[in-house]
Amino acid sequence: MSKKRERILLNISKTKEKIADLQDKLRELERQKTELENTEIVELVRSTKMNTTELSAFLKAYREKNDMSFIMPKEEENNHE
Fold first, then answer.
1. Burial (CB count <10 Å: 0-12, 13-18, 19+), residue 7
2. φ, ψ at 2 (rounded to 5°)
3. CA distance 81 to 74
4. Which of 7, 19, 46, 54 has its CA at 20 to 30 Å from residue 81's CA atom?
5. Which residues contact 43 (CB under 8 A, 6 or more apart)?
6. pTM recorded for the entire structure
């Protein structure tokens, strides 16, 4: 095998390894972001001092009043991608 080909194959291998490392880092950062968002949502909901029944009724009324029908549920969203 030529030295040039060996060098290219080595670079391909190193690049694939870097990509895998960066993908792992991205997944971890996205997990952390989601965790922080969820924490903020929980804090916000708790600050309302509503019980689950009251919160459910509030969200239902809000959706109906603001016609949030343009927001697709997750399952439908994934089917359209």
1. exposed
2. -75, 155
3. 11
4. 19
5. none
6. 0.61
Q: Which two tokens stand for residue 77?
A: 């969203």
CA distance 59 to 51: 12
Give the single-character DSSP code of 72: P
Query: What letter represents residue 76's amino acid?
Result: E
DSSP 71: S
In one-letter notation, the amino acid at residue 6 is E
What are the tokens at 33?
Answer: 């972001």
Helices (H), 48-81: 52-66, 74-79
Instruction: Please check whether residue 59 is in contact with residue 52, taking contact to mean a CB–CB distance below 8 angstroms.
Output: no
**Predicted confidence (pLDDT) per residue in 21-73, tens digit:** 999 999 999 999 999 999 999 999 899 999 989 989 988 988 888 866 555 55
Q: What is the identity of the amino acid at 65?
A: K
